[in-house]
């Protein structure tokens, strides 16, 4: 129980280390008002945690788009600090790893070392001591090379605190003295305070109480309000620690005085509510041991409520152990057992095996009938804990050794890699030159092939147009010849027959008269039919479709027969295709082909609309679909779109592509006629 209480004391002592993240924040003056505002809001405790995270993310989005320089990395540290204070460990870790990456790219050893300490802090928060120790050790080595004694000492203290928490008291003691060694003769009262405080805790833990009091008093003497702000309540912390040592010496009268003096510090409850609750509990416990019971158990309960509201698991555990002892003294076995069981449950949930041992010891005292069972469990856990503690010092030493070995191996590898780089560099250059040469020749051949292919396409199209023009001309000549034959030959002869038959009407034979009338009527009908046929054959329809239109409509027909999408087409009849060059026609034809392929293959369109329109002196082609669309600014232009742009430029025209995700695509080609 005493060890657990001491750990909590040291946790409070070094709590101000959690706020170290703010030490450098005022060193850089930001010119960006928005960034400064977001960082300020992210640190505003009057806002909800969600809002603070939101503002911190906005600040991060500004910083991430800035140049990777020293100011940028300082700002990223500010982002990490705020995530740290919000206990957002995931984003804290991501930000720190980004700082390490950027600092290594910029060969910024100072910020790399600092980021290693931040990463060590992360692993401490997660209870992963070996990883935390490794990153502290990496930072220590870098600060040693940089001759940065202050940060070297601070990092060694972080290692010492970690070793203390893992019960490696000898390793922690050595680390603290190594920290003090590098700042000897320098003014660094904050480090002196932390170092002496930690040494006092270590000596208290190993039972050397005189040394513990000596170093706690040194810590008290080293407090400098200019270096350590009053808000950290350093004096109250040291007074509590000294009082706690006297509690372990069973000198409760002396302990009581220190606790009372600690509680008398101004704004203690506001600045450090956890420390205030600890002092209240310690004072109550000393009063209990002195049998001054007037204010008990109210003071224990008062402390318990504060610690419970702050979710201080170890503090809650200690309060319940003290309450169990108090009620056992009052002969209230029910409450004594109740609080002992609650303490045991709390320690098991927190997986704090030291506290589990203290709870088992207490419950065995207040519940004698089950003492044997609790004692067996106590012995089993204690043996396992002692084995783990014996191994922990070796683990930290092994990490230091293996890290140095890896560093030496990396140095050898760097030399070997450099030699290999020289050997293979020339080969790589020759290979690259050969590859580039071959690639350029291949690209040149591909370009020539493409140009020949386009030339061939134009010639084929012109041949098709010429062939169809010849066919149409022959057909028109033949139609006119047939018309002349019908009009001049057949109609002339039939007209003569009708005149002759008409003259026979002078015969008064009734039967002959009727027959001749029938013949005449029939001949008139034939004459009319032949005349209509002649006129139809000879007439040139004003809306006769041009050859290009036939080709385009044939393409539309193939689209309708091949794909399920609905095709709507409209070709302005006022367009004079004969005035448009064949080169422009073939480019427009290919653009329609390419657009249809894109709509069918990529856009997943169900409706496609194609229009040819005449606008002033321009021919306008509009192709639209209701497909999935895409982001025009971000999407990479594929070969299809590049071909459309290229063919439009060939026609001296302009192309506009409008598309939105989920709203389809519209391509507008404007070509001068």
Automatic annotation (TrEMBL):
Chain ranges of the Histidine kinase domain: 588-673
Keywords: ATP-binding, Coiled coil, Kinase, Membrane, Nucleotide-binding, Phosphoprotein, TPR repeat, Transferase, Transmembrane, Transmembrane helix, Two-component regulatory system
SUPFAM superfamilies referenced in this protein's UniProt entry, alphabetically: ATPase domain of HSP90 chaperone/DNA topoisomerase II/histidine kinase, TPR-like
Transmembrane segments: 420-438
PROSITE patterns linked: HIS_KIN, PROKAR_LIPOPROTEIN, TPR
Positions in coiled-coil regions: 516-543
Keyword Cell cycle: no
Documented EC number(s): 2.7.13.3
InterPro entries: HATPase_C_sf, HATPase_dom, His_kinase_dom, Sensor_HK_TwoCompSys, Sig_transdc_His_kin_sub3_dim/P, TPR-like_helical_dom_sf, TPR_rpt
Class of enzymatic activity (EC top level): transferase
Superkingdom assignment: Bacteria
Catalytic activity: ATP + protein L-histidine = ADP + protein N-phospho-L-histidine
Any one of the GO CC terms: membrane
A molecular-function term among this protein's GO annotations: protein dimerization activity
TPR repeats: 193-226, 236-269
Keyword Secreted: no
Annotated signal sequence range: none
Protein name (Swiss-Prot/TrEMBL): histidine kinase
Source species: Flavobacterium restrictum
Taxonomic lineage of the native organism: Bacteria, Pseudomonadati, Bacteroidota, Flavobacteriia, Flavobacteriales
């Amino acid at each position: 129980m005493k060890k657990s209480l001491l750990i909590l004391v040291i946790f409070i002592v070094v709590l101000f280390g959690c706020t170290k993240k703010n030490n450098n924040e005022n060193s850089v003056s930001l010119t960006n008002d928005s960034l400064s505002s977001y960082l300020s809001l992210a640190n505003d405790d009057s806002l909800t945690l969600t809002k603070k995270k939101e503002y911190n993310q906005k600040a991060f989005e500004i910083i991430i788009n800035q140049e990777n320089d020293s100011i940028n990395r300082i700002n990223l540290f500010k982002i990490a600090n705020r995530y740290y204070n919000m206990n957002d460990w995931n984003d804290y870790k991501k930000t720190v790893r980004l700082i390490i990456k950027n600092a290594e790219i910029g060969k910024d050893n100072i910020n790399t070392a600092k980021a290693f300490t931040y990463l060590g802090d992360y692993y401490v928060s997660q209870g992963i001591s070996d990883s935390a120790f490794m990153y502290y050790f990496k930072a220590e080595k870098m600060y040693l090379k940089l001759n940065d004694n202050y940060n070297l000492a601070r990092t060694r203290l972080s290692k010492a605190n970690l070793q203390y928490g893992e019960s490696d008291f000898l390793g922690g003691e050595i680390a603290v003295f190594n920290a003090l060694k590098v700042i000897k003769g320098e003014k660094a009262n904050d480090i002196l305070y932390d170092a002496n405080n930690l040494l006092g805790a270590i000596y208290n833990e190993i039972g050397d109480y005189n040394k513990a009091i000596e170093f706690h008093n040194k810590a008290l003497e080293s407090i400098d309000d200019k270096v350590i702000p009053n808000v950290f309540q350093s004096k109250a912390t040291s007074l509590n620690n000294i009082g706690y040592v006297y509690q372990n010496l069973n000198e409760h009268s002396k302990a009581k005085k220190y606790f009372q003096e600690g509680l008398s510090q101004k704004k203690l409850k506001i600045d450090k509510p956890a420390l205030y609750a600890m002092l209240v509990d310690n004072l109550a416990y000393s009063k209990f041991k002195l049998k001054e019971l007037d204010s008990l158990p109210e003071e224990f309960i008062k402390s318990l409520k504060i610690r419970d509201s702050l979710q201080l698991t170890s503090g809650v555990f200690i309060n319940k152990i003290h309450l169990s002892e108090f009620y056992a003294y009052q002969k209230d076995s029910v409450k004594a057992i109740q609080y002992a069981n609650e303490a045991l449950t709390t320690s098991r949930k927190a997986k704090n095996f030291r506290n589990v041992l203290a709870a088992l010891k207490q419950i065995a005292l207040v519940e004698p009938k089950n003492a044997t069972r609790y004692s067996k469990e106590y012995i089993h856990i204690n043996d396992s804990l002692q084995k783990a503690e014996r191994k922990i010092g070796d683990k930290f030493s092994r990490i230091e050794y293996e890290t140095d070995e890896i560093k030496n191996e990396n140095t050898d590898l760097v030399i070997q890699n450099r030699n290999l780089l020289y050997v293979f560099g020339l080969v790589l250059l020759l290979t690259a030159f050969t590859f580039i040469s071959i690639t350029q020749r291949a690209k040149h051949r591909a370009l020539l092939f493409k140009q020949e292919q386009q030339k061939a396409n134009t010639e084929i199209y012109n041949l098709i147009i010429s062939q169809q023009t010849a066919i149409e001309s022959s057909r028109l000549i033949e139609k006119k010849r047939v018309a002349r034959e019908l009009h001049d030959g057949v109609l002339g002869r039939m007209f003569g027959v009708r005149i002759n038959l008409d003259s026979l009407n002078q015969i008064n034979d009734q039967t002959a008269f009727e027959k001749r009338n029938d013949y005449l009527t029939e001949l008139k009908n034939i004459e009319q039919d032949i005349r209509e046929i002649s006129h139809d054959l000879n007439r040139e329809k004003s809306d006769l479709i041009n050859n290009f239109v036939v080709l385009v409509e044939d393409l539309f027909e193939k689209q309708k027969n091949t794909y399920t999408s609905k095709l709507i087409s409209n070709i302005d009849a006022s367009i004079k295709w004969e005035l448009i060059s064949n080169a422009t026609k073939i480019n427009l034809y290919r653009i329609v082909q390419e657009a249809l392929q894109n709509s069918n293959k990529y856009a997943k369109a169900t409706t496609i609309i194609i229009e040819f329109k005449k606008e002033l002196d321009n021919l306008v082609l509009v192709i639209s679909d209701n497909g999935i669309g895409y982001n025009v600014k971000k999407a990479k232009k594929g070969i299809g779109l590049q071909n459309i742009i290229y063919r439009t430029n060939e026609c001296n025209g302009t192309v506009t592509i409008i598309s939105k995700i989920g709203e389809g695509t519209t391509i507008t080609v404007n070509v001068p006629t």
